[in-house]
Amino acid sequence: MRNTIISLYQPSHLAGLIPTMQGCVERTAETIQLTVEGDFDFSDLALKLATDVIGQAAFGVDFALSAPPQSERDGGGEAAEFVAEHVHSTTSLKMDLSGSLSIVLGLVAPALQAPARWLLRRIPGTADRRIARTNERLRARVEEIVASRERDGDRRRGQRDFLSALLNARDGSAKMRELLTPEYVGALTYEHLLAGSATTAFTLSSAVYLVAGHPEVEAKLLAEVDRSVPSAAPAADDLQHEFPYLDQIIKEAMRFYTVSPLIARETSQQVTVGGYALPSGAWVWLAPGVMAMDAAQFPDPGEFRPERFEAGCEEERRRHQYAHVPFGLGPRACVGQRFALQELKLAMVHLYRRYVFRRSPRMESPPELQFGIVLSFRHGVWLRAVERRSAA
User: Fold this and answer.
1) Which is nearest to 381 in space by CA: 365, 373, 371, 88?
2) Residue 385 forms beta bridges with which residues?
3) Helices first, then strands: H and E counts in the chain
4) In this structure, are residues 122 and 129 in contact, taking their beta carbons and an 8 Å threshold?
5) How many CB atoms lie within 10 A of CB 191?
6) In 3-state terms, what secondary structure has residue 220?
């Protein structure tokens, strides 16, 4: 199953997605044009952009959320309603004391979480019930999309979005048909949408917010962007090799604001870690954000300094190879790493060709973060876009 998914993230397939990603990014830039010199919530627009990109990659559907308001939107009200519920689901699961009661109980008494959730989902007015009802509606909508695509077998065989790939794989053998039930396909596809939108949007917002507060970083980024061909989207090879400072900015942004608060693993056998004996079946929690602020690995960790990720620099040579693991590590690391980085680079190259960004007076400093399945900015990222008239 994992091999089928991984095949969608091979370099050749990702290169073929560049026109789709670039189209969404250009549409986002046009939306920003309407806000020039005015305040706007960049994190909200980044989530719409990321959802548009993953919507086409996962479902083969253009939600057109990042389009200017007057544009025609493919999918109409039904698509908009689906995405509104999806966006709500990315912000309703919080892993702090502002979350649902079952989550709060899980933080202080894990054994009580499951029975509390079972009970609270049945009590009107509770956060657990609202979350459960939202998830039920989303699951029903995803299953409708799966059923529709399943009926249109001839058309989907020529498509390479995530849902089509799963259904095509299921058609290949009886074993795959048994494994890939409609419910399982729907769950995998929606998980793909969830994982590929909120995480990328947060990282893009973090990077732009941080660059906006560091003029010396912005100057180096603009110089690198301006050396590229201004009238064309970078090719896959260019994205990989021609933007080393942008690479450093993205890595440092992911360190400074680590999108995944926790990574969980379950031991498959008894193992000793750091002198502690862990039995088989024990849950092990890794906190990448805590590791990213370890001064032994990242001197002056509270300072935003992309140069600390410069290839071959002294700080990088001294650093442990697993000190910075924003995509996890090992055989269960995030399979969408290349997809996300390609999208992030395309977005930043195109946006900084056209604009620079300044923090709005409405933007709190430091920003208040909200802990959920992924990290988010509790009050958004309020910026002002300034058009670069001399660029392009």
Assistant:
1) 365
2) 357
3) 18, 9
4) yes
5) 12
6) helix
Which of 90, 105, 100 lies closest to 125 in space, CA to CA? 100
Length of the chain: 392
Mean residue pLDDT of the chain comes to: 84
Q: Return d(Cα 298, Cα 319) in angstroms, integer.
A: 8
> What global pTM score does this model have?
0.84
Q: Do 91 and 376 meet the contact criterion of CB atoms below 8 Å apart?
A: yes
> Which string of b and e fits 64-95 if b means at least 16 CB within 10 Å?
bbbbeeeeeeebeeebeebbeebbebbebbbb
Q: Which amino acid is at 339?
A: F
Residue 324 per-residue DSSP state: -
**Burial of residue 286 (number of CB atoms within 10 Å: 0-12, 13-18, 19+):** middle
Q: What residues have CB less than 8 Å from 91, skipping those under 6 apart?
A: 370, 372, 376
pLDDT in tens, 67-102: 887 644 444 444 556 666 666 665 555 544 445 676
**Which structure tokens are listed for 326?**
């924003």
- pLDDT at res. 92: 56
In the DSSP assignment, the letter for residue 171 is T
Provide, rounded to the nearest whole percent, the portion of the chain with pLDDT above 90: 45
Which residues have a Cβ under 8 Å from the Cβ of 215 and sit 6 or more positions away? none
Domains of the chain: 2-228+338-387 (1.10.630.10)
